[in-house]
Amino acid sequence: MIKKLIAIIIAVAIAVIVFLLWPSKPAEATELDFYGSLNYKLSNDENSSGNSYMKAENNGSKIGVNINENIAEGISGFATVEFGLDTDDSDNNPLDSRLAFAGLDFGSVGKLSAGRQASPFTTNISGHTDVFEVYGSGADQSLFTRDTNTIAYSNTVGALTLDGLVKVDGSTGKDGVDVQEGTVSFSEGMVSASAGISVDNVNDINYYGAGATVDLDFAKVGYTYTLKDAATDVTGNEFVVSKTIDATTFTGGYGKVEDSSAYYTAGVSHSFTEALSSYAEFQRVDNTGATIDTDSVSAGIKFAF
To answer: Strands, E, within the chain: which ranges?
Structure first.
């Protein structure tokens, strides 16, 4: 423990010395890139008792800003702040923190950031099949989508991108590190693929996954395999196929948890402009045993900027 503490202190000291000795330069304008979406849906979903209910509600609306500023030649600082927009104000709290991190971009050496960040495992693995607005990805096995107390590193070398993340919350876990994640992604031409691992040290659970997307002339095909390595292993497989004709995209999906539920999903979306679109989706969950199968349908409108 003492050796690790000494190593941390030395690393921090070196970083401070480098920062203090780094030649100053005239201040440059900070670049701000605002983005977001307003997404609202009307759904009719069946619950586990077989009863259906209709509801109009928010569907993941958000607003954020990417910030970038040059520090020196080949080095820049960056930050992202993103909030979920509760357009219904259901909890008297219209803003919910999604992302909040800052970091340094060292160019070919890579990027280092800290704060509340997205999981590279969920983003890079499940992202190959998480393409629906409302449903889908029911079979994917992952630890979290976003989390706090994280430090991340990312670097791209040719067609390969390496992403790593650790979570250190200072209160639980083993040896100070609660979660470790790492992925390797490849993108070249019509093929993109990712593989990775997520280690939950607190609960002694490992997640393994791989996914790929192939953009063919006649359709785009995605596949994801994930494994939750616990006392009882859980394996999930997801497939999606989409076809875009003019401004309309048709998508079908199938997900299966081994020895458990199967998910059948279909959707169509239409873009009126670059920013405004509408969508409609259906999902059937084929449950095992005495659990009732359920059907769900949604339609919504989305404005992205």
So the answer is: 31-46, 52-58, 62-72, 75-85, 95-105, 111-118, 146-157, 160-167, 179-188, 191-200, 205-215, 220-229, 234-245, 248-257, 262-271, 276-286, 294-304
